[in-house]
Amino acid sequence: MTASALAMNRRGALAALGGGLLAGLLPRPAEATAVAPTAPEAAQVFGAQGGLDAGFWLAAFDGEGRRRISLPLPARGHDTAIDPSGRRAVIVARRPGRFALAVDLASGALEREIAAAPGRHFYGHAVFSPDGALLYTTENDYEAGLGKIGVRDATDGFRWLGELPSHGVGPHQLALLSDGETLVVANGGIRTHPDQGRRKLNLETMEPSLVRLERGSGKLVAARTLPPWYHQLSIRHIAVDAADRVAVAMQHEGLLEDRVPMVAIDRSEDGGDGDLALLRAPAPVERRMRNYCGSVCLDSGERVMAVSHPRGGQTTFWSWPEGEYLSRIEVLDGCGLAPAAEAGRFWISNGRGELILHDATADAAAPQTIAVDEGRYWDNHLTFLAGRP
Description:
mainly beta, 47% strand
């Protein structure tokens, strides 16, 4: 990875200070320990939590509903990336946060504090390279209003190496494709600035996109867009299957009474530009979405797609890769989604502290509550880590 490929600049030297910029804000490693011994063979579900009174955590539960990790956070976390070895995780701050934490999964202890570079903040998502050597994070160059993909050396204290263009505004979730070299990035199209909190500054001129880019050079490979009349559909969350088809969940920034498609698929295989395939559900189901999707994932068998709609209190299920609407279940304030080990089953979390397991392929199956975390609520996302043999 060359300096020219990553557009190295003087911010790198400052960002390399990393944890020093956050000293005093974050819990010390001695305070951030696993609640119970974490057996490497135990499957676990990870997610950010908040306290009903105060406090924020990274939490992990096993399949029996037992808490395995409880790591205090300085503010709201968003999503968790797990390295290919399954031994380390990085939890990233919710926009416009400027912290991320690397966690040793065997002990549950804080390994490293990671700070955003000057002039940048995180968008809550990250992904490791296939060998675990690099960490990629979606970030905002907030003075220029441009999306960036930060690149850090995970073998050297997450030292800042440089950045790639996201080829859009407001990059949110990202993922690697099967070649291990192509990143797919959801550019939400919304410009923000930390001086104005979470205010959205360009709703009339939004240009969301789903792009594919080379992780080595940053070169744009392909860009998927929406028809002009759907320009306020913010492309936010994605899931990728083994054939590099991409599931897309969106958030509409227009009027609540607008009835718009909230879910899409990029089935393209030719690498060219084009539009996304927009999916429709029955009108009563779409109205219950309240123009908002919180998360999207595919089951482990890649036959079912799940999409959460926390504002509408429901989770919907769709055939994959056909994209036909299948069913829905009621989940009050349910947002986090992750595939369970068994095909057709999903982990779901909600704002009541409940961790739920649901089989979307079983007729009339009722969601099963595996754990209720009294005094805490689950935040936006879940990540599943299969047990190691």
